[in-house]
Amino acid sequence: MNKMRIILGVNGTKRSVDISPNETLLHVLREKLDLTGSKEGCGTGDCGACTVMVDGKAVNSCLMLAAEADGSEVLTIEGLVKEGKINALQQAFVEEHAVQCGFCIPGVIMVSSAYLSENPAPSKEEIKNAITGNICRCGGYQFMIEAVSKAGKRPPGH
Amino acid sequence: MSAETVLLQQRPSLEYVGKDLLREDSFPKVRGVLRYVDDLKISGMLSGKVLRSPFPNAKIKKIDVSDALKLPGVITVLTPFNVPQQRFTRHFTYVPWKEIRDRRILDSTVRFVGDPVAAVAATDPHIAEEAVEKIRVEYEELPAYLTAEASLQNDAIPIHDVIEVGDEVRRLENNIPYVEVMEDGNKGQAYLESAKVYEQTFKTQPLFNAPIEKRSIIASPTPTGGLEIWCTTQSIHGLRYCLSKALKIPLNMITVHDNLIGGGFGLKYNLAMHEPIAAYLALVTGRPVKITMTREEDFTNGGRRPVRMDVKIGVATDGTIKAMEMNAVLQSGAYDDHIVGAVSCLGGWFFSMYRAKYKYYKGVSVYTNLPVYSAMRGFLNPQQNFAVESLADEIAEDLGVDPLEFRLKNIPRQGDLFYGQGFTVVTKIRSNGLDYLLREGARRIGWQSKIRPVTDGNKVRAIGFAWGDHSSGTGGEMVTVQDRIEGTGAIVKVNEDGSVNVTTGLVDHGGGTHEVFRKICAQTLGVRLDDIHITLGTTDSVPFDTGTHACRGSFVGGAGVMMAASEAKELLLKEASAMLEVSKSELEIKSGIISSRTNPQKKVTVASAVMHAKTRSGGGVLATSRVRPAAAPPNYVTCFVEVELDKETGRVQVTRAVMGADVGTVVNPKDCILQLHGGLAFGMGMALLEGVQYDNGKITNPNYVDYMVARALDMPSIESFFADTYEPTGPFGLKGIGESSTNPVASAIANAVSRALGRRIRELPITPERILESMDLVLASTEH
Question: Please, are residues A107 and A48 in contact by the beta-carbon 8 Å criterion?
């Protein structure tokens, strides 16, 4: 099969990767760059576990071809940690007990992170809408919504 | 509050037990650095891929693998004609004399669409996939039986002509591998005292556990002819046992690692069919082999079995239940998967629902040419709960009694017997907050005895409720042959810096069981929670543990940790006593300091006591436990819901839920609440959304679009509360919660919908089509 080389910004570092044209971004992240934080729950864009940000937008990396991401900035769950410290959203997920088995969590955090950058002070109903593409089979949606709400800039009580 | 609820106002406030503290495993999970099985890579690892049957029942006449083998990168291809042909069990809570052995690594007869036919190991997953497509198979199709009813027809040919059970090779004349009858009490007297007898049939649908993490296994050969295994399993010892039997390798040559998993809900509590295939590929190639399911493949690994239940309840004029009978047909898939346990437990749950003078149960399990049904959260309890709690509402309505009062009159009380895990696993009920949960749930949601649905345009709102239970583990009073494997243990190692490792082989599939272990250990030892680290062991290094099922993690596993921690504490006190020249009984340990109760100035740190042990008494401080609880006490959950039914579309939305739980001592409050949220989501799926569909035996909805699980927008506002009870047989008084949390949910929703509709729904799921069909019937009956 034809190989091609792409250049990706991954969590702030330029990476050059040899790929096949039919390879997904998720496959490249997990198998070639050893960034296994992004998960494959379905492979068909239905569960949200593979969500990463490409140029600031949340995408299902299992549906995006790696070739399409050529030249883009990709941010994965691993990239949220700065100088060894988790960010406010990650901290809120821990504090609000929004994490159970944890398999959906990277995707939910990436979706919420992208959403908070568009809407920094969302209502709980808005958050519910924002994360409804992400399946949590443990069923812990309510505490996730609390966590995103806490991380948002909305003052408490609103 | 009822006098029966054990009130514990004097319960001492504990430093860690009962407090919401940050979970140790949450940090790697939010960072995305926790390695689940499919995230692991081993040098030289091959990818395995399974070729699956397109037919529900067929004989493999010929397989041509020559083209597949020619592909560069293909290392080997397994077929039924080049693998050993012994039969083995895939069941983890095995009792050797009851275990059904009907599975081979690869079999020359395939019995469901998706049954493994052949398997490839290749250097790359894409090559393995391509190779599988190049295998040519000649099949001879056989008649297929795609429902329990079809399999039970007199002229049906047995799907398995031979199975092995215990030491016996059994020839089957029909498709019934297991039947169990339970009977208790005086039938004649019970019906004599029954003023009215109610009989109804209830049916539940096939469901899929659908954890977001698909199953994955890495099998790596060891230099001595054994295997090292990383697997998405709920039981490392169960997996080891089944692999040992499947491959004829001694248990001590197989090492299975405890690995955190991305949800299980019972699906990962069996030997999946690709797992012995991966292990055999590793043995044949001499290289590590990984097989990870696609989402579609994962749907064939298990699920909740559909059950048809004919229920009969006799009631006296005052509303006292006198007789309870159930005849159940449990639809199994093409191979044994918890068949014996499913039949036994269904009866046990049914027997435990209400007090009655006479109880009878007959459960018949039936092979079909469908993918297997495994364990699934609640394990047959949600099915019988739907039947019994629906009929309880019907009876109350017919008698003109408040359904709440009807429950309160007939529920099990303290001192009654609980048969959760079947007729042979008996536990005396010592803690029971059910009366309180029912009354408090009713109060919180605003239940009224003469409830009328509220109509608003096309929308009708109504409230419904149900209660459920589950066993905490599978132990029981040691007076009978229980036929249940149950046991656990832990290693508590206190280090010379005062830190502690709790090494466990019990898998935490996400509920926070390991956090319970940390708290129990900290609380028992008297060290700081932050000093406790959970170490995931292997089958070589930890005491036996049955696995994560039956609400047993905290109740049974916690008992193991508590026992080891108590022994480690004794060792610490012994050292400190020698160091301080104070008798052991006078010493206490708090926050890592061992001091005299009478003279607090006399103190040493835990760290220095460990160092003392290392330098003086010739060893460190380490304790290992092994325990089998002599009880499997029931934990209780009540679910009250308000639903909104759209008469135009037939759609039902759950708009409010009040979940109450009696789990004994609440160790991790927020994790317990999460279990209630998750149980609600699962039960909503069962009631309204989920159902595996087949077309000629092939699953037609093996994805998250067509198989709908509850999403954020489906969830109502949820209120949770707990009964203040203490279970004397549980560590720190705790009981389980993971399964009871879902057991009454579908029933509560069905009861609410039936009330909104004015017509009883006796088959799940309650789809808009069923609602609309039912409304036509209501209209038709009112027109007459």
Answer: yes
